[in-house]
Design goal:
The protein is about 25% helix and about 25% strand. It binds flavin-adenine dinucleotide.
């Protein structure tokens, strides 16, 4: 990973302007979605410029933290499943092209009351799309997974094909591939604003102005700053992740323990986490990583406090104390990250209203977008180069929210 980071850092344009100032497509933000968009656009032969305000990757937006859960039995809505089928295929394709490890199949355990929306939603998507999911009662679950202690009446589901993807590595791989295919990627280049001028768009940055025929907006938590019409729609929240050292670390290691999600009956959202990963194979801290998936404190991207608090730690300790008798000895590292939430917690992937055919936007991933990166990049390419996509994104249209 460090080598790949160095390679990308040496091939991006960090200060000098590219020779040309006119592109087919400019991508605003080369993070999760933007890096994949740059790759798919460059692969289709477009002359692409990707503009990133920080380095690639970085810890200020939504993609830091080593791992992101990927799963198909989507409790949020079954309409995501066809997109996930494509996302899984595209992750595999990225692995094939780069010979790197991006998708790691660990299996995923879901715990919760049978009438909880998460459990019902997993079963609904699994039933509709024939996704393998095994159901275990409390006794069978704790016999197979003695690491967890479950309240009476909980049910356990196991999705064997779920696991995690590696965000920083994936972003670097897509960026590297995009550059190899001819894309120009500029880091440390902050976009101030963009506007339509005649048939083209002009993008103003701290490195000067660039022009293009089509725009892709993938600015994550900064999206509403570049698209003020979305200020009422997108809410940025501060989220905290922790890596803890369990009392019995060996029982939480990869191979003995999978990814997991707990729909606690008294708390909103879900607690979730990962197995302890082997040293040296993955970027980032070592430990039993966990977080709480529910919108945190509403924040501004420029002033948000990045320092974890005792309350943040106490919230995660609640989950460890209640469900994992040997899960906690001490906290190793805590970090903050940002969600960009829509009012219904579903994504926006569409043309920007008023710029149909010209400006595509992917935003408001509401804390569950990373697993889709590999298909979102392809969809954005379709929208700006072909004028439509065969991927079923109708339910994610932008006009469902008032401007
Ligand atoms: C703690 C946490 C846990 C998560 N867990 C999961 C999970 O388990 N599974 C899952 O699928 N998803 C998960 N997610 C969600 C997922 O990571 C996000 O949905 C995804 O990373 C969003 O991608 P993005 O491209 O919109 O934002 P980012 O990756 O932040 O990219 C936006 C980029 O645009 C750049 N940018 C913005 N404005 C400008 C500008 N003016 N000029 C130049 N560049 C600019 C930013 O610097 C940034 O690099 C999690 C998110 C968090 C925070």
């Amino acid at each position: 990973m460090e080598e790949l980071k160095k390679k990308v850092s040496n091939t991006v344009d960090q200060s000098g302007s590219p020779v040309d100032k006119h592109f087919d497509v400019i991508v605003l933000g080369v993070g999760s979605m933007g890096s994949a968009a740059c790759y798919f656009l460059a692969r289709s032969g477009a002359k692409v410029l990707g503009l990133e305000q920080f380095d690639i990757p970085h810890e200020m937006g939504s993609h830091a933290g080593q791992s992101r859960i990927i799963r198909k039995a989507y409790f949020e809505h079954p309409d995501y499943v066809p997109l996930l089928e494509s996302a899984y295929a595209n992750w595999k394709e990225l692995e094939r092209i780069t010979q790197a490890e991006v998708y790691i199949k660990t299996g995923l355990l879901y715990f919760g009351k049978p009438d909880h929306q998460v459990i019902k939603g997993v079963l609904e998507s699994a039933g509709k799309y024939r996704i393998p999911v095994e159901k275990l009662d409390n006794r069978a679950a704790t016999a197979r997974y003695p690491q967890v202690s479950l309240p009476n009446g909980y049910t356990t589901l196991l999705e064997p094909d779920a696991g995690f993807v590696t965000p920083e590595r994936a972003i670097l791989l897509y960026t590297d591939q995009a550059i190899q295919l001819g894309a120009v990627i500029k880091t440390k280049t902050a976009v101030f604003h963009w506007k339509k001028e005649g048939d083209d768009y002009t993008v103003s940055t701290n490195q000067g102005e660039f022009r293009c025929k089509k725009l892709v907006i993938t600015s994550g938590p900064w999206t509403a700053k570049l698209v003020p019409a979305l200020k009422q729609t997108l809410t940025v929240t501060r989220q905290v992740i922790a890596w803890v050292i369990p009392r019995k670390p060996a029982s939480f290691e990869w191979g003995r323990w999978p990814c997991w999600m707990i729909a606690d009956e008294h708390k909103p959202g879900i607690y979730y986490g990962f197995p302890i990963l082997p040293v040296g194979r993955f970027h980032g801290p070592i430990g039993f990583k966990l977080a709480h998936h529910t919108p945190g404190m509403v924040s501004d991207t420029d002033t948000v406090s990045r320092i974890p608090t005792p309350e943040d730690e106490a919230n995660l300790a609640y989950c460890l104390d209640k469900y994992f008798p040997d899960g906690y000895a001490n906290t190793h590292v805590m970090k903050t990250c940002l969600y960009t939430n829509t009012p219904d917690e579903h994504f926006i992937i569409d043309y920007l209203p008023g710029h149909e055919g010209k400006v595509a936007i992917a935003a408001g991933f509401s804390g569950h977008g990373f697993k889709f990166v590999s298909v979102v990049g392809e969809i954005l390419r379709d929208l700006v180069l072909s004028g439509s996509t065969s991927h079923p994104i109708g339910f994610l249209h932008a006009k469902r929210f008032p401007a």
